[in-house]
Design goal:
Layout (H helix, E strand, L loop, with lengths): L1 H14 L9 H19 L4 H4 L22 H7 L34 E3 L2 E4 L2 H10 L4 E9 L4 E9 L3 H7 L1 E9 L4 E10 L2 H21 L3 H4 L13 H7 L19 H7 L10 H17 L23 H10 L9 H29 L6 E9 L8 E4 L2 E4 L5 E4 L3 E5 L3 E3 L2 E8 L7 E5 L4 E11 L6 E3 L5 E5 L8 E12 L8 E7 L4 E10 L6 E11 L4 E2 L5 E2 L6 E4 L1 E2 L2 E2 L8 E5 L6 E8 L3 E9 L4 E10 L2 E8 L6 E9 L2 E9 L2
Parallel strand pairs: 7-15
Antiparallel strand pairs: 1-2, 3-4, 4-5, 5-6, 7-10, 8-9, 8-11, 11-14, 12-13, 13-15, 16-17, 17-20, 18-19, 18-21, 20-24, 21-22, 21-23, 25-26, 27-28, 28-31, 29-30, 29-32, 32-33
Helix pairs in contact: 2-4, 2-7, 2-10, 2-13, 4-7, 5-7, 6-7, 10-13, 11-13
């Protein structure tokens, strides 16, 4: 009896090689369409370009034999996977018998397990085939009858391979590996790198995606998940597959309604949304979709009531995931079915709805990789305080956050706005300088095109020295005193003085001394106190803190010594005013940072030729301020940077036995 059945099987294989494992192509097209609707509903917006290549109103195969790759429609590829095996050319006598022989995968037996086919070599499984479509590894035959100018004659198509379907779609990059001549003879040669027209590449890629959809959704059929061959002409059909797509029998293409149409994007949404593929690489994503789909279908039995029955199982010997564990817990043990209508619905409620969801997730993955769907990127914001770190506060989209912020998810191409906040930390006043993207606007809007961290850079300078006061005694030098600055990185203090004589204008500030941290007083021997009730002189002093981390000084805070009714006078000798004696070489500027001008003060002990110049941070000379002979003394010169851009500049002095370079910052 077995010999007779095998003989009949082989005979019918020959007669019905396209229908032995007859899949319902129209059902695959239905899933392909509903998966797009599901995708659009879950995203909340239309993917116009992708939508135009689904084939939402297209039914059937209906492509010309001379150019079957011209439509660029996913549903055409979903149908064509049953018509032609474009990888291994299964479908001939004793050679897989039908392209559909590659549409099974018994996932419990391993990822690369083959499907036994009677009187034929075992066939590669659906998951293995999908990996080739998506990630390359074998040539694909693209049929198109055309004249080949290099060969000087017509050909029926070319064998092409690629590194991945995504790269092929995005660039047209591929490899020519051979062709089929007009007689049907194949010719192969070593791969030759090639770029085909991008529009043609993308039309082919959409149809290849349809082939993958067919393979994925076939694994939603229990018979395909069990590697249960079900040749309909031998009355070994699968009850579930027949019910969903062939209500009129083996060869009956439905005219109008078929039950699979009752499961749609709407019913799938009651089961859940996209499958969670976040954090997975491309290979992990495809394996997860195929294995999850196969294992859910594997839970249910296949065949038909009576002979040809194949039980389902809940085995997860080839891997597991949270989705399968949770669904198996709900579904319970694998059921025994008589395949009545209610049981068909139970299978479809679980597996057919999942087919729509896995296909929609596949669409989402493909559209994201090909920039057909905007990617979601993650950005965060932080401050940069030199010597301190990225602490403090920062304003993002109108809300103040602690730096560094958590990630904000932003759709590719959209914007997010942040505002830098000037703040004081550890007695250092931080003023915004620029963002890490180069913007100098305090409030900046960022267009997001990748995961990113945006940094607000600041310039820190010490806040003002406190407790400045004086010892002002008659005929004694003026003593200036102050409190130690709380920040230990303030390592020096500069003492500056301005003088106002009678009712004239106040003179320019003059640096009269520098002391190290730990010294909190300075004696100005140029002037002495007076007990007279009047004086022609009024003095102002400023003690500037020097912040060594950023080489900056505190702001001007001049304090008059006209206190407690005391007046002062300049020291006189023989009724002549004494000129201050320069005791040290020095070079300073104030203010620093500045905008747009600053005064450069210098003292030289010995007279001679003096040169004072300014350079930018590339070492280019931008100004010559002094270039002449000068006697010993104190001098000042103004540097006007109104025509220069923000940044760091260096000023230098070259004099007899005195050469020095200092940094100053122009801050717009």
């Amino acid at each position: 009896m077995k010999i007779l059945k095998l003989t009949m099987f082989l005979l019918l294989m020959v007669l019905f090689s396209k229908n032995v494992f007859g899949h319902k192509e129209w059902v695959h097209q239905h899933i392909a369409r509903e998966a797009y609707y599901f995708l659009e509903n879950q995203l909340g917006f239309e993917l116009t370009e992708f939508k135009s290549h689904i084939g939402l109103s297209y039914y059937g195969y209906g492509v010309p034999d001379y150019d079957p790759w011209n439509t660029g429609l996913v549903v055409v590829g979903a149908w064509a996977e049953d018509e032609n095996d474009i990888i291994w050319n299964y479908g001939g006598w004793f050679d897989g018998w039908t392209p559909s022989s590659t549409h099974f995968w018994h996932g419990d037996l391993g990822d690369d397990t083959k499907t036994p086919i009677p009187a034929s070599p075992d066939a590669y499984n659906a998951y293995y085939k999908a990996k080739i479509y998506l990630f390359g590894g074998h040539s694909i035959f693209f049929a198109k009858k055309a004249f080949d100018p290099f060969l000087g004659g017509d050909i029926l198509g070319r064998f092409i391979s690629y590194n991945s379907l995504i790269e092929f779609f995005n660039t047209g990059h591929c490899y020519l590996e051979g062709y089929m001549d007009i007689s049907g003879t194949t010719h192969f040669f070593p791969p030759e790198e090639y770029y085909i027209d991008l529009d043609a590449a993308q039309r082919r890629a959409y149809q290849i995606l349809g082939h993958v959809v067919h393979l994925l959704t076939d694994l939603g059929v229990p018979a395909h998940a069990h590697a249960d061959l079900h040749p309909c002409p031998l009355n070994d059909e699968d009850a579930y597959e027949m019910y969903m797509g062939n209500p009129d029998g083996c060869d009956g293409e439905p005219n109008g309604y078929y039950p699979a149409q009752d499961w749609t994007a709407t019913t799938a949404a009651t089961q859940g949304g996209f499958l969670d593929i976040d954090g997975m690489n491309d290979f992990e994503t495809i394996r997860y979709l195929f294995y999850t789909q196969q294992q859910i279908a594997d839970h249910f039995p296949s065949g038909r009531s009576g002979s040809g029955y194949h039980p389902g199982n809940n085995y997860l010997v080839n891997g597991t995931n949270d989705y399968l564990i949770s669904r198996y817990a709900v579904l319970g043990p694998s059921p025994f079915y008589s395949f009545d209508t209610n049981e068909m619905h139970l299978i479809a409620d679980e597996s057919f709805n999942l087919s729509i969801r896995t296909t929609a997730t596949l669409y989402k993955w493909f559209a994201s990789k090909t920039n057909l769907i905007p990617n979601t990127y993650y950005v965060n914001f932080q401050n940069n305080f030199i010597g301190v770190g990225n602490i403090g506060n920062i304003n993002v989209s109108g809300t103040v956050y602690t730096s560094p912020t958590n990630n904000f998810s932003v759709t590719q191409g959209n914007t997010i706005t942040a505002t830098a906040i000037n703040q004081t930390l550890n007695n250092i006043d931080y003023t915004f300088s620029n963002w890490s993207n180069g913007s100098t606007d305090v409030t900046t809007t960022f267009t997001v095109t990748a995961n990113a961290t945006y940094t607000a850079n600041f310039i820190g300078k010490p806040n003002n020295v406190s407790g400045v006061h004086f010892i002002n005694q008659n005929m004694q030098p003026i003593t200036i005193l102050w409190n130690e600055h709380p920040n230990v990185n303030v390592t020096q203090y500069q003492i500056w003085r301005k003088v106002k004589y009678k009712k004239g204008t106040t003179g320019p500030p003059v640096l009269i001394g520098t002391v190290n941290r730990g010294t909190n007083s300075f004696v100005d021997n140029d002037y002495m106190g007076t007990n007279l009730g009047f004086t022609d002189w009024l003095l102002f002093y400023d003690v500037k803190a020097y912040y060594s981390i950023e080489q900056t000084y505190s702001d001007d805070t001049y304090v008059s010594i006209f206190a407690n009714g005391s007046l002062i006078m300049e020291i006189k000798k023989n009724n002549e005013e004494i000129l201050s004696v320069v005791k040290e070489n020095s070079l300073e500027n104030y203010p620093n940072p500045f905008n747009p001008s600053t005064m450069i003060q210098y003292q030289i002990i010995e007279g001679g030729f003096v040169s004072v110049k300014v350079y930018d941070n590339l070492g280019r000379e931008v100004a010559v301020l002094v270039n002449k002979e000068q006697p010993s003394g104190r001098y000042s010169v103004t540097f006007d940077a109104s025509k220069l851009s923000s940044g760091v500049y260096f000023y230098t002095i070259n004099a007899k036995d005195f050469n020095k370079v200092k940094k100053m910052i122009l801050l717009r």
